[in-house]
C-alpha cells in the first residue's frame, strides 16, 4: 500500500458526532480505505448494518475495538468476560476484521494485586485463544500507558505485552499506540523484537503538553511532542505494512468539531508528519 | 531504626499551609525525626533559618528536594541548570542532607527528541558529579511516572535510572517513589538490582482511582491501589534502612486540611499499611 491508502479512521475519533455507519461513510468520503468500529457502535447501529456499510463504501475494517477487560473479582465474572470476548470474535468475523484489539483491564474492584490482575489477563487470553485461532482473528494486546494501570489495562509496556505473546504463542501480537508507548526508552528494541508477524496494529495521535485530562485530551498528529516520524520509521524497519489508525479521544477539542474536517485534517497531518 | 523513627515529612505534603521552618516544627511536634525541605521553601525562609530549625527541633534532613531539570534548548541554559544544581549541593551541605533528589527534566521547549533530552540529563549529572562527590552529597535520580516524560522528567523507570547510575558510577543512586513506579512489572527486580548502596530514598503516598489531576491528586497511604506493604518488603529485602518520606501533592484534599492532622494521619497510616 502507498501511504494515503494506509490511513484508517478509528471511529473513536469521530464518536461524538458520528455513529458507526456514519463514520464508515465519512471515512469513504475522505477517500480512506479503512475504518475501525467500536463494539458500542456495533451494538447501537447493528452488526449487519455496520458490515453492509463497510461493504457498500469499499471500506475495510482495520480492527475491531475492543475486547479485553479480563480481570474480575470472581471466577464467574472472569468467565463472563471471556464469553463476551468470544462474541467479539464473532463480530470481528462478521465485519472481516483480522484483528481484535485487547484493552486487557486493570485491577479488580478493591484489589491492589497487580501481579494477580496480570495473571488473570494471561489466563483470559489463553482461554480465548483457541477460538480466536479457529476463527482466524488475531488478538492484539495493546499495552496502555502506565497511568491507566489501575483502571484500564495492567499491561503497560510493549516489552511486557511481548513477554505475554511469547508465552501464549501464535495468534497473539501487539497493537502499538504511540500515545501509550512514546515515552518508553526501550521502544525501538521492542518494536524490532515484535517483528512484522506480531505487529498487528499501529495507532497514531499525539501527546499534548499540557495534557488536561488523563483520558480525553489526546492531540492531533503534529500538535504534541511525539516524534511520530521516528516511531513510524521503526515500524517500517520492523516490517509493519498494515493500516495505520488515527485514534483521538478529545472531548473538548476534536470531538466538538465537524467530523468531516477532523478526518481531512487527520489525513493531511498523516501525510505531513507521520 | 525502628519503624516510627523512619518516617520523614517531605515538606511538599504540607506546603499550602506551612513554610519550611513551620513544617520542620510540625514534624517535630508529631514526634518525627526527619523532614525533607524544598528549595523554594529554603529560598523563602532562608537557608540559615532552615538549618537552625532542623537543629533546634532535633529533625534531620532526609533529602533536599530538588535538583535536576537539566535539558534545555541551548548550551548556556544547560550550563545554567548545572550551576543551579551546584548551589543545591551547597544548600544540601548546609542542612546536612546526604542526598539531593534529582527530578531530571523533560523535553526542551519545542523539542520532540526524548533521546536527546535523556543525553542532556546524563551530561548534566556527569558535569555535577565530581563536585557532588567532593561535597559528600549523593545524587538520587528519581524516575518519574511516564505521564511526566514530556514536561518533568524523561527518566521514567527504575531500570532506566539504574542504567544511568551504572554509566555514571559512585555518587549516584535512585529515589524510589511508589507513585511513579508502582505499575512497573519489573519493579521488584530493579529494586534488588539497585541494592542498598544505590537506594537513596523511598517516597510514599498512594495512587487514587480515579485520579482527578495528573500532578496534584496524590492519595494518602491506604486510600489508593498501591500495594505499599509489598514494595516496602522489597525495599527491606534489598537492604534499604533509611528514612521513608511521605510526599503527597494534593491540592484539593490534603493541602486544604490542618497540617498537624495530616501529619498525624500520615504517621498512623505509615504504621498501619506501609
A few lines on this structure:
The first copy, chain A, is α/β, with parallel strands linked by helices and 274 residues long.
Can you put this structure into words, describing what you see?
The structure is a homodimer of 274-residue chains. The longest helix of chain A is centred in the middle third of the chain and has 22 residues, at 114-135. Chain A has 10 helices and 9 strands. Chain A is an alpha/beta fold. In chain A, 45% of the residues lie in helices and 14% in strands. The model of chain A has no long low-confidence stretch (mean pLDDT 97). Chain A is globular and about 45 Å long. Chains A and B meet through loops of A and loops of B.
How much helicity do the residues of chain A have? Answer: 40-55%
CATH structural fold name of chain A? TIM Barrel
Biggest interface goes to: A-B, 29 and 29 residues
Structural class by helix and strand composition of chain A = alpha/beta
In CATH, the homologous superfamily of chain A goes by the name Divalent-metal-dependent TIM barrel enzymes
Name the poorly predicted regions of chain A: none
CATH architecture of chain A: Alpha-Beta Barrel
The rounded distance between the terminal residues' Cα atoms of chain A is 15 Å
Q: What is the H/E order of chain A?
A: EHEHHEEHEHEHEHHEHEH
